[in-house]
Amino acid sequence: MNTVDDLKYPRVLLKLSGEALAGAQGFGIDPPVVERLTEEVKAVSQMGAALGLVIGGGNIVRGSAASAQGMDRVSADYMGMLATIINALAIQDLLEKKDVDTRVMTAIRMDELAEPYIRRRALRHLEKGRVVIFAGGTGNPYFSTDTAAALRAIEMEADVVIKATKVSGVFTADPVKDPSAQFIPEISFREVVANELAVMDAAAVSLCKENCLPIIVLDLEEAGSVSAAIRGERVGTLVS
Ligand code: UDP
């Protein structure tokens, strides 16, 4: 059994995209997928790591896609932010059923169903061993939940941002489309920016770079990968 002293990254911000909740169906929430994902979160929490989650909303609404269909961009982005809150409540419910203590904090006030995001209160929840689910993105249109993950990680003084994806890390090209794409185990922020590699969006990468906050990109479907990364094992791609 690990103790918190054995962990390379004792405080972690885990970014889960909406897509990760949708599984193969590509939209909505796939219960078996979320079940597996919450097992992973529970394992991390039991290791003693302080854990914050930022959940995307792309499985329900993506602002840029809705605005491309003619909707006002700002309204579409608010719909996207609301989608992240729906996902956060789903994750919270499943985590609480597994006896993991959680708090959802929203960037847009919604007092009847969750606490508003207040930095000092969030820090206190983490200190008490609660998993904090940061919902509503940054609370501002034209941003993404990747940027929200970087921002909350910096505010929480996290040791690492883990971006859980469907591929095993960063590649020279999109491995789904290009079979010659090569896996990159470790890379600098400078190279990520220069080569426009798909790690997180540019605003998120720039926030992490400026604040010397490492990012690990890994495959969520590899069981145990998040725990292994937090222990300091070589998993996925390390950007630092
Ligand atoms: N969004 C936003 N501001 C934020 C975070 C999210 O406007 O700070 C909106 C945006 O429209 C985005 C949607 O919420 O498309 C869902 O978030 P995202 O696309 O980042 O989710 P993911 O791709 O991780 O599922």
List key phrases describing it.
single chain, 240 residues, alpha/beta, 9-stranded mixed sheet, two-stranded antiparallel sheet, 9 helices, 11 strands, 18% strand, binds uridine-5'-diphosphate
In short:
This protein is α/β, with parallel strands linked by helices.
Architecture blueprint of SSEs:
Blueprint: E1 11-16, H1 18-22, H2 31-46, E2 50-55, H3 63-68, H4 73-97, E3 102-106, E4 115-116, H5 119-127, E5 131-135, H6 145-155, E6 160-165, E7 170-171, E8 183-184, E9 186-187, H7 189-194, H8 202-210, E10 215-219, H9 225-231, E11 237-239
Parallel strand pairs: 1-2, 1-6, 2-5, 3-4, 3-5, 6-10, 9-11
Antiparallel strand pairs: 7-8, 10-11
Helix pairs in contact: 2-9, 6-8
Bound molecules: uridine-5'-diphosphate (UDP).
Uridine-5'-diphosphate (UDP) is lined by residues 17-19, 56-58, 62-64, 76-77, 80-81, 83-84, 137-138, 140-141, 143-146, 148.
Describe the structure.
With 240 residues, the chain is α/β, with parallel strands linked by helices. It has nine helices and eleven strands. It has helices at 18-22, 31-46, 63-68, 73-97, 119-127, 145-155, 189-194, 202-210, 225-231, and strands spanning 11-16, 50-55, 102-106, 115-116, 131-135, 160-165, 170-171, 183-184, 186-187, 215-219, 237-239. The strands form two sheets. The protein has a nine-stranded mixed beta sheet, sandwiched between helices. It has a two-stranded antiparallel sheet with strand order 7-8. It is globular, with a radius of gyration of 17 Å. Uridine-5'-diphosphate binds next to α1, α3, α4 and α6.
